[in-house]
Amino acid sequence: MAGYFAIFLVVLTIGSGLIWLFDARILAPKRKLKLVQAEAAGSALTDATKQQILSQSYIAETAQSIFPLIAIITIFRSFLYEPFQIPSGSMMPTLLVGDFILVEKYAYDVKDPVWRTTLLETGKPQHGDVAVFKHPKEPGTDLIKRVIGLPGDRIVYKNKQLYLQKACDKTLPQPCPTLEALRQELKSDGEFFLDAYSLKRLTEQGPKHNYDILQNALLPEAIQSYYHQPASATGEFIVPEGHYFMMGDNRDHSSDSRFWGFVPEQNLVGKAVFKWMSFEFSEDANSWLPGWVPVKIRFERLGAIE
Known about the structure:
This protein is α+β, with helices and mostly antiparallel strands. The protein has 4 helices and 18 strands.
């Protein structure tokens, strides 16, 4: 089911539309009839009196005013694009705290805005997509991660190296794919920090395109906390049908499918496609500015999300 704000928008749109329709079809004709009867009675009516007889109630006038705007916002947000703000560093360096992004809602099927049932099939996630989805354990929470595994894929994460064996399509003549390591190349060291940790930036060669990830050389893998799939070894995952395997680009500082399992297809919200604003906030504890007040706009970060 959708979040409270989405439900609020739908209820507000339907409510204001019904009030406007009721006033236009039922109450407005009654007001006009009342005016005709008053004029037929022979009494001289001033323009102010006529206006008073024909005037809408405050509720009907408000509903008529807000309905078009609310309807446009609801349609845009529910079926086209929804704005999100990045709250944490789990997707660094691709997305930073303070980035504002647009999520393409129709990328992974068109769903109704309340119950999230599929209305129209438009596409499925691909390897390397940056996707927003509902947390499988906490449906009220939206997460953003990278799509690493598709249905039928075999994922192995060991010694901070990612291995992928893509699902076998037995309808094709070529042999089934084998388990392969995704190549990683060091790009920089010391460019990014998280708390007191210096992070290595590497370029990972995904099946569809390359993207940058971060690794913390000082932190060991938290394998004791990994989600254990029945009949699979620790750190090995076979993606079930109708599910996806998600990981944050900040590999050692991300809670993702390695820890809580797979994301059902119905939990998908959309594909992150564009950074339309990026704010930098002060980390100085002695600053007189509140922590939520931006100190800089990072114009260089605006653009498409890879």
